[in-house]
């Protein structure tokens, strides 16, 4: 269970309090610059919170050693780039870095876990493909497999579907959902959030303005206040679907 | 030749002429070993810099570290504070850190080509000051000294120099090899490495200071030899792939072999005249640099 307790950072996060229960997928929503990425970075201990604390099953992430934290928290960034000539398997094995027993060799376990992670990301046939030859969707799945190979308790996703077409967006989030790992995911697409998230947290200018199940939170009133858009929310077999109005010109 | 070496190691009682013994034991052998040590060290320094700075054009020479070290060494000689390889190496280390610090301060986190631009500018500045200092103190062998420090040569490699450089090389290799996995984690950038459990700030500084120290000691015995650190890591990576656990040992080996061959060529092609070894490494290195630059531009 992830608890974010009154976390502030610069002027970007203001006393953010929320939690992610074990096994759930929580969507982190809000307009550009509302602090989604900063909050994820604070949870990953990439930036130190000025005030408040982030705890993972009671342990303050700022006090956990980097390698120990990397065995518990994995981050999937918006997009990943490298100039190196890596195979998909090489990338996935990077996820074993914090678990190394030997500085030198990959253990038998590491290879088994990497293969299992490839399977979970639906990439088994891609193991020996070169990173440079992958499409955007395949790259994000490779990064997901790398994150799963870390065997984390908590998965942080920073708008992982930003550069993907709709088919690959749906595929990536269903794979995340299927993995069963507790997840906090910053998302731009509100309809993706209503489709996959157990609950959502809405940030506006660094503050939490709403928390709860997507159907309760994502109302026309909130969308107008936070995003400044006019929208109607429709029920589609119990799942809210948001339709936006064209702004007056 | 082998008889001489065996004789010195106490393996044979065969008698060799004194002159021959002297040439092999005092001149040829230290020079070959010196080339191996300098080649291995520069190549590994280049490989580490390329990974840590995520700049495929990084190399101790192109980033100004070698020229800074040469200036530092010449500075120590001029001030006359101390003599011997140790003092030279210390001065070179100061110069190397200063030059590298300047390059980082000037270029910050800009694109790889801009960092190299800053490096070349600082290298030129250090080279100019080095030449100036050598001529200013009226070194009787000014031209020769300038060529030695700025183009590099293994002509001064002797047992004393080796006694300094070899332990430093071995210590640096041990330290760098121990970080091989952490270096792999830099593939997707520093922040990605941090989320994989690498203490990136600590590792980066540890490795950059180590490579600066290594470069400084090597420059103190051989001057600023360019491009070994650029081309060898790329050539070896092409063969082994980017995993540092395999890459680094082979880069060390490749760098050693490369410089032994190039130095032999520098010594023998125009016999009895000798080319500065840096002239030959530049002849091989500059086309390689242009190739890498073009490949980077096309991405």
UniProtKB/TrEMBL annotation, chain A:
SMART domains: AAA. Residues 2-230 form the ABC transporter domain. Gene3D superfamilies: P-loop containing nucleotide triphosphate hydrolases. This is ABC transporter ATP-binding protein. CDD domains: ABC_Iron-Siderophores_B12_Hemin. It comes from Paractinoplanes aksuensis. Transmembrane segments: none annotated. Keywords: ATP-binding, Nucleotide-binding. The lineage of its organism: Bacteria, Bacillati, Actinomycetota, Actinomycetes, Micromonosporales. GO terms for molecular function: ATP binding. InterPro entries: AAA+_ATPase, ABC_transporter-like_ATP-bd, ABC_transporter-like_CS, P-loop_NTPase. It comes from the Bacteria.
Automatic annotation (TrEMBL), chain B:
It is found in: Cell membrane. The lineage of its organism: Bacteria, Bacillati, Actinomycetota, Actinomycetes, Micromonosporales. Its main location: membrane. Keywords: Cell membrane, Membrane, Transmembrane, Transmembrane helix, Transport. Pfam families: FecCD (PF01032). This is Iron chelate uptake ABC transporter family permease subunit. It is a multi-pass membrane protein. It comes from the Bacteria. Belongs to the binding-protein-dependent transport system permease family. FecCD subfamily. The chain crosses the membrane at residues 29-49, 61-81, 88-109, 115-138, 159-178, 205-235, 247-269, 275-293.
